Amino acid sequence: MENKDLTGIQILGLSVAMLAPSGAMAFNTAGAVQNAGMTAPLSFLLAGIGILFVGFSFVQLGRVIPGEGSAYAYNSKALGERMGFISGWLLILTYVTFAFSSSAIVGNFLNVFLEHFGIRLPVPLYVIAVLLVGGFLSHFGIEFSTRLALILEAFAVGALSVLTVIILLKGGMHGLSGKPFNPKNGSISGIGSGMIFAMMSFAGFEGAATITHRAKNYKKAITVAIIGSVVFGMFFYFIVSYTEIMGYGLNNIAAMKNSAAPLNFLATHYVGKAMAIFIDFASVTSYFACYFGALNSGAFMLKAIADRGYLGSWIAKTSGKKNTPTHALDTITVLALIFWAVIGIGMKVNAGDYYNYLGTIGTIALLLVYVLVNVGVIFYFKRDNKKKIMRHLIAPIIGILVMIFPIYSNLWPIPSWPMNIFPYIVLVWLILGFFMKRKSKA
Description:
Layout: H1 8-19, H2 21-36, H3 40-64, H4 71-78, H5 81-115, H6 123-137, H7 142-169, H8 188-202, H9 218-248, H10 253-257, H11 262-270, H12 273-307, H13 326-346, H14 351-382, H15 389-409, H16 422-435
Helix pairs in contact: 1-7, 1-9, 1-12, 2-8, 2-9, 2-12, 3-8, 3-9, 3-14, 3-15, 4-5, 4-14, 5-6, 5-12, 5-13, 5-14, 5-16, 6-13, 7-9, 7-12, 11-12, 12-13, 14-15, 14-16
């Protein structure tokens, strides 16, 4: 029997951890600025509004279709078992690749943090340590995992919030300006391109849907977790991206575009080395929370499809009073170690590129899931007497339209190697899913 002992705050914590808002601001703002220039905050705001429509679709289905498996459970009812499985199959690819990629960037930031104290070890060793520690901690149960993720991300958000307030109070580099809020200071295409990086910052907001069946009040939990994480992310990204631009100064946008660590520069410039150390540690905790959230979300997705007769019963096994899916957790951890050994160490792909490559694969798969969930809302409520035009037709259509741009942008113009092969990796995974046989009923 499933435990019903998670609170709404714990479930919200998993979604916020998957967003890794502090880490996103450390990595994705520069990419958004490269495309949108000073109007990058508008890219984050518009992306948040678009993602909110997708979030509404998750909430609409999650409130009437409780059960393990997130999009798998929803679309099994809305679109049939096969499309439901495909939705879950794509989510597995997303969460597994996010766990892989996030662990690598934790190792990267851990290296940056420890170098402040004269400690210099090979980054690959840090990544291995992160995977082993995370795999061990995950066995303490989802309650522990959600609390840890929430604490780590709260620390990271707090640290970045302090820096944000300091920069704003000091008026930035050359005084605060409203120019970033005026679309005329950029271009429609530039703002749109910047939305790609902004949407990457929202990827994973739906992670809580994998565990809402363990909540005391699942209807309230999924609403708070999904909508709460998106609204929080939208305003946090909007304010922090604006602050980063003001921190560099409107006349120094080029420096921000080319910066590998904009928060490190801002912390050092406005406060000092101590704040830079603090922010670097916050980046470690933010991405570890993201990795931990992806690890747990992936494990619960694997368990969900295994419970329904796919992949074998072994992977669905749970342990302890908390029914922790230890076999699924260990499977992801072992695969992460193998991938890092082969690609990160064997092929000498650095942690940053490893993060970008696997994160892109996961994001492409996730965008397809978002489209399928929106389609699921339209078809599920089409046969429901309680259908509401705005919630069950217009909102999901807007959600689908918002997803088209980043999906198209990953296909055309054709990206350079190796980014050009990533859509085909997702396609192969999708085809494998269509041939996957269900061995038994739940």
